[in-house]
Write a structure and sequence with these properties.
CATH class of the largest domain: Alpha Beta
CATH superfamily of the largest domain: ACT domain
Largest sheet: 4 strands, antiparallel
Low-confidence stretches: none
Radius of gyration: 18 Å
Structural class: alpha+beta
Oligomer: single chain
Number of strands: 8
Strand order of the largest sheet: 2-3-1-4
Number of domains: 2
CATH architecture of the largest domain: 2-Layer Sandwich
Bound molecules: iron/sulfur cluster
Distance between the termini: 13 Å
């Protein structure tokens, strides 16, 4: 399974090798999505962790034990075509063009594959056709 998490590091553990321990000791694959760490202030790391469920649970326990705060990141965006009114409000907001207009059919189409789950479009939809899955 995969889990996207935002890790907040307090200052005193910025130099701890927590990510390499997740890989070596818990047999997890960690992909860093975004990182901002400064030695004097702590920092934030957005990651996707992949591995067996049991290993992910143990890895999360380890992170909590050493003082890393965890928040879930959006896992997936679900578009509900039955609710969509094709108003196009979401189209210009998407940074990766996951919503496109089919000019011939006068409809809006959503591409799962392009979506990077940034969440920008969710609030913009007046018909609540876009849902965040954590
Ligand atoms: S969540 Fe972000 S990337 Fe995905 S469709 Fe919405 S705006 Fe585009
Ligand atoms: S904003 Fe909502 S209703 Fe409008 S096109 Fe996008 S998904 Fe459909």
């Amino acid at each position: 399974m995969k889990k996207k998490l935002s890790l907040s590091y307090p200052r005193h553990i910025v130099n701890e090798p927590v990510i390499s321990r997740l890989v070596k000791d818990y047999d997890l694959v960690v992909s860093i999505i975004k990182a901002k760490i400064t030695p004097d202030e702590g920092g934030r790391l957005d990651v996707e962790i992949s591995g067996k469920k049991n290993a992910i649970d143990k890895g999360i326990n380890y992170l909590t034990r050493v003082g890393v705060e965890l928040q879930p990141l959006i896992q997936e965006i679900k578009w509900n075509p039955e609710r969509c009114n094709h108003c196009t409000a979401c189209v210009p907001l998407c940074p990766v063009n996951a919503f496109e207009i089919d000019r011939k059919e006068r409809t809006v189409l959503f591409s799962d594959e392009k979506c990077i789950a940034c969440g920008v479009c969710v609030q913009a939809c007046p018909y609540r056709a876009i849902e965040i899955i954590f």
